[in-house]
Specification:
The structure is a homodimer of 355-residue chains. Chain A is an alpha/beta fold and 355 residues long. Chain A contains 13 helices and 12 strands. Helix content of chain A is 41%, strand content 16%. The longest helix of chain A is centred in the C-terminal third of the chain and has 17 residues. The interface between A and B is large, with 71 and 71 residues.
C-alpha cells in the first residue's frame, strides 16, 4: 500500500520535507501568487484545479509541507471543531460521531474529540477553549444556557446536538440546537399503541431532566389524553441498558395490572426491556406486550428484536448541524434552533391493530 | 450547572478573559516563577498542589487563559494524539474509542479523531501530519510498515491497535502494535467446540487479509488439526453484519452436510449469524448449531444472544497503548509489539459437552 499511486501523491518526497522552504518558494516555482498557495492548502477555499495542481507539484519538488498549527495563529482559525459526547454504549451516538466527523472533515474541519461522563461535560469546556476551536458540538450532554453564551463570547460558539438547554425563565437568546421533533415523536408512539388496542400503556423514561425525555414524554402523554387514554404505569431507565432492565422488572413483575404495551425512551433501553420480558419473565412480544422504542439504531432491525421505533433522521440532523456551523462561523448568524421530523418505523415488536 | 462550584473553579472570571495578560503577570501576582505557571498548566508536569492553587487563583484574578496552540509552537509538542478508526458500527470500536480517549485525556493528551473508511486510512495520514500530532494510534485499519516508518521519521510515531502491519520479508523494525493473542484465541475456540462433540465445524472469516483474521484462523485450524479435526466449511463475512448474514446463508441453507458448529471471526458478525440461523432458517442455537464469536462486546451478553465468545481485554490493551506511547515519546524507546492474552467466555450459544 505504501507504494500505491495514492500514497505517492499524498506524501510526495516525504522523507525530504524541508523545513526552510516557505510558501513564497512554492509560489515562485509554481508561478502563482502566495495567496494561491495558501488557498490551495485551505479546505473549501476557492482555487482552480489547475492552480492547485501546480502548487502541489511545486510543493512536492521543494519538499514543502504547510504547518496547520502556525496557520492557526495567523488566521485565528484552527479549523478544529470540538465534539463532546457521552454514552457511546448507546449505538445511536457512534453513528452520529461517525457521520458528523466525516461531514466536518469533508467541510475541511478536524474533530477534537472529548468523551465525557454525563456529569463532567460542563467542566471539559475550560479545557476545550484552550485549543481555540472554531466551534463546539455537544451531543448527549447537558449544558446550561449561560455557559453556552460564555463559550460563544470566548469565540467558540456551541451547537447542542440532540439536546436543548435547560431554559431560564428570562432567556432571550437560547444557544444553537439541532434536535428531532421529540414531542411529535412521542405523539406518533401514542397513536400507534392506541391503534393497537392497548389498555394499559406504560412509559419508561430516559434521564428525567433531559430535554429529549421531557419532550418525548409530554408528546406521548398529551396525545394519549387526546385519545381518551393515559399512561398506566411509569418507570425510569436513565437511558442506560441496566437502568432499563430494572425499570422493566419493576413494571412487569407483577401479573395483575401488568402493562400490555410500553413506550421506551430510547432503542438502547427498549432492547434491554425486550430481553427482560422474554428471557427473564417469559412474556411474548408482541402477544403479551407491545414494545416501541425511539432512535432506530441498527440493532432495532436485527432479527432477534425487530423493534418498532420512532426514527431520528441522523442524515438531516448532521446536515442541519453543518449548515448551522457555516452560518455561525461565516455569515455572522445568530444562534437558532432546528427541529428535524421523526417517523414511525413499524416492525414486529408491536401489534398493528386491535385483536 | 453553570453555578456549580466545579464550574466556577474551571471558568473563573470567564467573561473577563484578558488577552493582554501574560504568564509573567500571573507569576508576579502568585509570587512564583514563570516556569511554575507553565508547569501548572501542563498536564502531568511536576508542580505542588499549593503552587498550582496559587497560580490558578492569580490567573482567575487577572483573567488569564493559556493558549495551547501557541504553546505547541514553543514546545514542539501539541499534546494531541491522532486516533484513526473505522467500523464504529462494530460495538467493539466505540468501546475502544471511549476508553482510549478517556485514558489519553487523563494522561494530558487530546484526541484528534479521524473516522475513515477502510480504504482511505493511509491517505488520511498526510492530513494528520499537518497538525504536528505527538503520535498516531490506528485501530481497525491497515497500514503498511513503510508508511508507519515515514510517520515516525516525520516526528509522529504510529501505534497500531488491534492490527499488525503486513510484514515485509526483509523487515528489520516493524512498527509498534498492541494486539490480542489472536492465534491463542483461535485455539481456545477450537478446543471449546471440539469438547462440545461437534463433527462439522465451520469458520466465518473477517477481512481475509487482516492480521486479526489471519491469526485467529491459523490458531483455530492448527488446534483443530492437533485434535484430529478440521474446518468442515468456510465462508467470508468481512467483519460486517451484512457480510456475515450472507456467509451464514451460504453455509447453512443446505440441509445435507450442514455444519453443527461455527466459529465466527467477530461478535458483530456472530450476532448476525445467530439472527439468520434462528429468524430465517428456523435453527436452534445451540441445539442445532453452536456459535462462538470473538471480542466479547456488550451485546454478546444480552438476553437475546448469550453468545459464547473469546474476550479481547480492552482494559489491558488500552493500558499497553498508553505505556507504549509514554515510552516512545518520553524515553526514546524503539517500536515494539505487545500481545495481550484472550480468554474464553462460555454462555448458552454453544454446547459445553458432547451430548
Amino acid at each position: 500500500m505504501a507504494g500505491s499511486p495514492v500514497m505517492k501523491e499524498a506524501f510526495g518526497n516525504f522523507k525530504n520535507v524541508n523545513k526552510n522552504v516557505t510558501s513564497q518558494h512554492v509560489a515562485r516555482l509554481a508561478q502563482v501568487s502566495q495567496s494561491a498557495v495558501s488557498r490551495a492548502y485551505t479546505p473549501g477555499a476557492s482555487v482552480s484545479t489547475h492552480t492547485r495542481q501546480r502548487v502541489m507539484d511545486a510543493a512536492r519538488q521543494l519538499g514543502y509541507r504547510p504547518n496547520a498549527i502556525a496557520r492557526t495563529l495567523i488566521t485565528k482559525k484552527s479549523r478544529m471543531i470540538a465534539v463532546v459526547m457521552s454514552q457511546l454504549d448507546n449505538q445511536f451516538y457512534p453513528l452520529v460521531l461517525e457521520k458528523l466527523s466525516q461531514r466536518l472533515r469533508s467541510d475541511g474541519y478536524h474533530v477534537l474529540l472529548f468523551i465525557t461522563s454525563r456529569d463532567e461535560s460542563d467542566g471539559v469546556l475550560a479545557e476545550i477553549l484552550q485549543y481555540q476551536v472554531d466551534a463546539i458540538v455537544m451531543a448527549s450532554t447537558v449544558l446550561s444556557s449561560a455557559l453556552a453564551r460564555d463559550c460563544a463570547r470566548a469565540g467558540s460558539p456551541v451547537i447542542l446536538f440532540n439536546r436543548m438547554t435547560k431554559r431560564a425563565a428570562n432567556e432571550d437568546h437560547p444557544p444553537s440546537a439541532v434536535t428531532s421533533d421529540n414531542e411529535a415523536g412521542g405523539r406518533l408512539a401514542a397513536r400507534h399503541l392506541h391503534a393497537g388496542g392497548h389498555q394499559r400503556i406504560a412509559y419508561i423514561a430516559g434521564l428525567e431532566e433531559s430535554s429529549t425525555n421531557l419532550d418525548r414524554e409530554r408528546g406521548f402523554r398529551d396525545e394519549l389524553a387526546l385519545l381518551g387514554s393515559r399512561i398506566h404505569a411509569r418507570a425510569v431507565g436513565n437511558y442506560s441498558y441496566e437502568g432499563a432492565q430494572l425499570a422493566a422488572r419493576q413494571l412487569f413483575s407483577s401479573a395483575s395490572q401488568r402493562p400490555d404495551a410500553v413506550f421506551v425512551g430510547s432503542d438502547h433501553m427498549a432492547l434491554a426491556v425486550m430481553d427482560v420480558l422474554r428471557s427473564e419473565l417469559g412474556l411474548r412480544v408482541p402477544q403479551d406486550v407491545s414494545v416501541v422504542g425511539f432512535d432506530n439504531v441498527p440493532q432495532a432491525a436485527w432479527g432477534a428484536y425487530q423493534l418498532t421505533t420512532i426514527e431520528q433522521s441522523i442524515g438531516p440532523m448532521i446536515e442541519a448541524t453543518a449548515t448551522m456551523l457555516h452560518a455561525l462561523l461565516h455569515e455572522g448568524a445568530q444562534p437558532s434552533a432546528v427541529t428535524v421530523p421523526c417517523r414511525l418505523i413499524v416492525r414486529t415488536s408491536s401489534k398493528t391493530s386491535a385483536l
